[in-house]
């Protein structure tokens, strides 16, 4: 997974640069950075006011941060190809920034330090995304190599070194099956019967898998309808699928490591993963139908 997921992100940027995709990528980057400051203060107030302060804090973080890397990224790639992976990778930049800063500080009670900033960016997936994005944007301004019928940037290995690119694609293709095996292995370690009896875990899972994507749809539709930040149907569908993922494993690990509602976090992880797996076909069909709206074309 450490190799496959970065390569999945990097190889997605080995495509020709076009203006429309570039504009959409910056729109996705904006939403990836904007959605978490919206969700973090809003969700505890909307959904968890009747819980204790510690439960509000933990449930708010668990609801805001989904498993966008292991669950969302491979699915986006399987459905929408390289554009889906590209948009999902760019969207994840904001996710990583807030997960390793706000979520960590809130759960641990520590202050922001240099090591937290390092965690945000010195991460194989984030590095691969940033490197791929920069290479993709600069490809028309660097030395080129002439190949049959076209000239491409010297680092466009999909054209210049196809044998290496095919090897990278082969490894990147392992991301989806490995992710699902990892999810299954993680679920096998949790007591199913106890989790199924936890009403809060079910309530959380409904909020995370159903209501958070609906909030994302409403925000994206408002931005496109008012022409403040217009997005196309692939960007729209990718971002909604990314938000319809179960709880992030890192967020659950924070809860366990710092002893903040660790049992609740574990139960929420199990139920939300099962819930998300069952709800996935519904969301794929839904975003395809909604993407036909004129505002997403």
Summed up, what is this model?
The protein has 297 residues and is mainly α.
Explain how this protein is built.
The protein is an all-alpha fold and 297 residues long. The chain has one domain (4-296). 75% of the residues lie in helices and 3% in strands. The protein has helices at residues 4-12, 19-47, 53-64, 68-108, 114-121, 124-138, 157-160, 162-172, 175-188, 192-196, 199-225, 233-243, 249-257, 262-290, and strands at residues 144-147, 150-153. A two-stranded antiparallel ribbon has the order 1-2. A hairpin with a 2-residue loop joins β1 (144-147) and β2. α4 packs across α12 (233-243) and α4 runs parallel beside α13 (249-257). The longest helix has 41 residues, at 68-108. It is globular, with a radius of gyration of 19 Å. The mean pLDDT is 85.
Supply the helix-strand structural class: mainly alpha
Shape: globular
Our estimate of the beta-strand percent is under 5%
Structurally, the number of domains stands at 1
Oligomer: single chain
Instruction: Round the mean pLDDT to the nearest integer and report it.
Output: 85
Summed up, the helix count is 14
Number of strands: 2
